[in-house]
Design brief:
about 425 residues; Rossmann fold; five-stranded parallel sheet
Length: about 425
């Protein structure tokens, strides 16, 4: 039941000419400027500091081919705008492909530690997360915006959101608001996912929704009709997809062939815009929830900071990051980089120790209106240790675009 982005449980653009306008715009958007010369855009010229990402760039089950490029594009944009901290420190992005296996995850952790990264940003390990935690903690490396297989996190991990668990609970609230109270869970068939439905049930129940079916789809499945029949036997009025985007596309195609049209929901990484549009007879109204607005250009008016995201991705000249085709999985590395940069904006020397010290005391870090201000020093809530952001946004597919509702949902109330 892995989706393409931040599976916290495996069970899985522009910046102005006139000086006054530039400074005012930077204050509004949380843009770091060089203190020595804030009236003009000056590329970073200070010391170079490495930041890393470990992620399944290639993988048979949960590949995120765009995330490494999105991370590098975010770093390049920050450097162009003056770098990090008071001395204009230049960032160097180091990306390590775990290939989606346990040995690759631990190997990448060791590789990043050996290369001297001061922090990882938006990294993901879901096969052997505890060993990855051990390696990075032993090296004194913080993890900003980490996506892990645990809902909590180690002492040097600073998540930005409740991840996949909070997202799925947001789906439950969205289902209930639409009068859908019986849900079938569709997940990847993996030993680690066998208890996921039972894990979700109490919180879903508090949100007014019963999980009436638990359908596990093996990796490599080619015939999805039997799984559609299994879903139908549980007689749900909504279906929560906790699978990757490739499996989701095939399952939705099978639903269409069998004229089965339940309300769908899941994490944005489960549904590509191409799939939503191709099968819109089945996908119209589909709920996509996450701790941040869905990165579609149709949401720029409600969330202006998305313009900067699209501009930074476009500036990379990478086809996979083209704003008209970009996947939602590209957004998390960018917003995680933003969080790191804004957290460190008043720091002179950026190294492993100063990053730890800053994040353990920082509060109300600006995320450009894409989420509530981030407080990495927060003790968190319930099982979400160290997570200060209990809010998720519900988006829906309107037949053409994904539109995010302006009002977010506080999911912490469902874990008490």
């Amino acid at each position: 039941m892995l989706s393409r982005a931040e599976p916290n449980v495996v069970v899985r653009k522009p910046w102005l000419l006139v000086a006054v306008v530039l400074i005012a715009g930077a204050a509004t958007l949380g843009i770091p400027l060089r203190a020595a010369n804030a009236s003009v855009r000056v590329a970073a010229s200070g010391p170079v500091v490495k930041v890393g990402m470990l992620a399944p760039i290639t993988s048979a089950t949960a590949a995120n081919p765009d995330q490494g490029e999105a991370f590098k594009a975010a770093v390049a944009a920050i450097n162009k705008r003056g770098g990090v901290g008071t001395n204009g420190t230049r960032l160097q992005a180091v990306v390590c492909d775990t290939k989606g296996d346990a040995n690759g995850e631990v190997g990448c952790a060791r590789n990043l530690a050996a290369q001297g990264v001061v922090a990882t940003i938006g990294d993901l390990a879901y096969n052997d997360p505890s060993s990855v935690d051990d390696v990075l903690q032993s090296a004194g490396i913080t993890r900003i915006g980490v996506s892990s297989t645990g809902v909590g996190g180690p002492s040097l991990a600073f998540p930005l959101s409740t991840g996949i668990v909070g997202a799925y609970l947001g789906d439950a609230v969205g289902f209930d608001n639409r009068g859908k109270t019986k849900v079938a869970l569709v997940r990847t068939d993996a030993a680690t996912g066998a208890g996921f439905a039972d894990f979700l049930r109490p919180s879903f129940k508090k949100a007014g929704v019963d999980i009436v079916g638990d359908v596990a789809i093996p990796t490599g499945t080619t015939d999805y009709a039997p799984f559609v029949a299994q879903i139908q036997r549980s007689n749900p009025d909504a279906v929560l997809l906790a699978i990757d985007d490739t499996a989701a596309a095939q399952l939705i195609a099978a639903m269409g062939s069998l004229n089965y049209k339940p309300l769908l929901g899941g994490h944005p990484g489960t549904f590509t815009l191409e799939t939503l549009r191709k099968f819109k007879t089945n996908t119209n109204g589909t709920l996509l929830t996450k701790s941040f607005p869905y990165p579609s250009q149709s949401n720029e008016k409600s969330f202006p900071a998305l313009k900067q995201f699209f501009a930074d991705m476009k500036a990379s000249n990478k086809q996979i990051l083209d704003p008209s085709k970009i996947q939602p999985t590209s957004f998390y590395p960018w917003v995680s980089t933003l969080a790191f940069v804004n957290a460190m904006k008043n720091t002179d020397t950026i190294n492993r120790d100063s990053v730890i010290q800053t994040l353990k005391t920082a509060h109300d870090i600006d995320l450009m209106g894409l989420a509530e201000p981030w407080t990495p020093s927060s003790p968190g809530f319930s099982v979400f240790t160290g997570i200060s952001n209990p809010y998720v946004y519900v988006s829906h597919f309107d037949g053409k675009n994904v539109v995010t509702e302006k009002k977010s949902i506080d999911v912490s109330q469902y874990f008490r």
